[in-house]
Amino acid sequence: MSTLVRQMKKSLVLTLAFLVFFVPILLTMNVGQAQAATPVLNLDVKSAIMIEAKTGKILYKYNENQAFPPASMTKMMTEYLVLNAIEKKKITWDQKVMVDEYGAFLGKSGTSGVLLAQNEVHTVKELYEALAIYSANDATVMLAKTVAGSETEFVKLMNKTAKEFGMTQTKFVTSTGLPVEDLKQFAPDTSNGTDNMMSARDSAILAKELLTRYPELLETTKIPHKTFREGSTRPLKMDNWNWMLPGLVKQYQGVDGLKTGHTNAAGFCFTGTAERNGVRLITVVMGAKSFLSRFTETSKMLDYGFSNYKMQPILAKGAQIPGGEMAKVEKGTAKEVAAVAGQEVLYPVKAGEAGAYKPKAVLKTVTAPVKQGQTVGSIKIVGPNGKSDEFLRPIDEQKAGGVLVAKEEVEEAGWIRLAFRSFFGFIGGIFGSLGDLIKGLFS
Q1: What is catalyzed by this enzyme (predicted)?
Q2: Which of 37, 169, 213, 248 has a CB 3.0–4.6 Å from the CB of 199, allowing a cystine?
Q3: How confident is the model at residue 281 (pLDDT cuts 50, 70, 90)?
Q4: Which of 54, 57, 75, 331 is catalytic?
């Protein structure tokens, strides 16, 4: 046998040995990386999602775009609209509300409520606390009517706001989340026989908007116990349905909201939020199988989120981004202005990926006069392999990195300066074109 043949056989044997022993190991490594990117939490729910609250970056998702009945998680939109009406001074906290026939009907319906009676009077603040702490349906509908005049008009406002938020898989027909058939003669005119529907993603969007705009809501949602009609002859103890709050059965460190829900069609649902070490997470589970399991499944997501993610400093306030130091200025005394980070950029980064995220400047041309601190661009966070992360909505991705602002003022240039600049630009253009022509003739 020739030496060449022996060498070829030896090479073939070594190649086969490599394929047999090392390829399976490499494949296992790749699978492991894929699993790390999409954690397997084995949640026993119909759908779920977890996001970092500030940026809207998705940390976990499962069937997040399919719409299901949200039950009382609907009330998050009612809370938002009540707080918005307070902010716009359309209603006040101490405003008196007299309970009507609809409120009294729900007070006797056997669902969650504070047993409101017809002609009973309470303040907006009292009814709001009954909604946020005890998920009181009777209090909720009275607030809806106070804000919009009727539940039908309030539901229109709910759907309009949902559309503005980008909640594409949501339809509201009641302010409470109760099935329409349970409302009998009080069913809203807009129901058309259908019930509320919302996806886990949309619930997370709503929760993010609520907490971003009205973080003071948490001061109420974190209350574990409160007495309605305290000091009266008919006091009622309200125990918060969120049993993940400190001191309750399924307590979890850092939980301070947000909204539970349950109907036969919806199963057991929960939109939760918790904060630890500067990281705030928002979680949603829909269609859990029992009262307690929705909290157990939520704990799995929170455990994963808090053990794997932290808010990583990406850019200091006032710092510049290499390659994006200057923004163009039109009609100014200067043609450019230094672009700096308007605030410190913190971003949720998974353990082991601290150096994988970089800021990228997205600059725009501004017209003088330019004020110091004026927005001149945005900051995009680029992840591993130059790719962006997944967010709830495009607007969340756009805002995740914050903005670039002008480091100094740029005054508007006078007409003489602009005329000379235009003239010399014109001359430069002519000679530039002429030079290109001559160069072309002799190339």
Answers
A1: Preferential cleavage: (Ac)2-L-Lys-D-Ala-|-D-Ala. Also transpeptidation of peptidyl-alanyl moieties that are N-acyl substituents of D-alanine
A2: 169
A3: very high
A4: 75
To the query of whether residue 88 is one of the catalytic residues in this protein, the response is no
Which residues are CB-contacts of 75 (< 8 A; sequence separation ≥ 6)? 131, 135, 140, 175, 176, 177, 259, 261
CA distances, 135 to each of 16, 74, 95, 111, 184 (Å): 66, 10, 20, 10, 20
Among the ranges given (25-39, 201-215, 358-372, 409-423), the one the predictor scored with the smallest mean pLDDT: 25-39
Q: Which of 135, 199, 293, 378 is catalytic?
A: 135
What pLDDT does residue 384 have? Answer: 82
Whether 135 is catalytic is yes
- Residues 29-36 have a mean pLDDT of 32
Q: What is the reported pTM?
A: 0.85
Which domains can be identified in the chain, with CATH numbers? Answer: 47-310 (3.40.710.10), 316-406 (2.60.410.10)
Peptide bond into 235 cis (omega under 30): no
Catalytic (active site) residue 72: yes
259 is in an annotated binding site: yes
Contact 431, 407 (CB under 8 A): no
pLDDT class of 109 with cuts at 50, 70, 90: confident
How does residue 419 score in pLDDT terms, banded at 50, 70 and 90? low
Which token pair is 45?
A: 């729910």
> What's the token pair of residue 302?
């929170």
Cα separation of 128 and 78, whole Å?
10
Query: Choosing from 47, 57, 61, 72, which is the catalytic residue?
Result: 72
Q: Which of 172, 210, 232 is nearest to 83 (CA)?
A: 210
Whether residue 238 has pLDDT greater than 60: yes
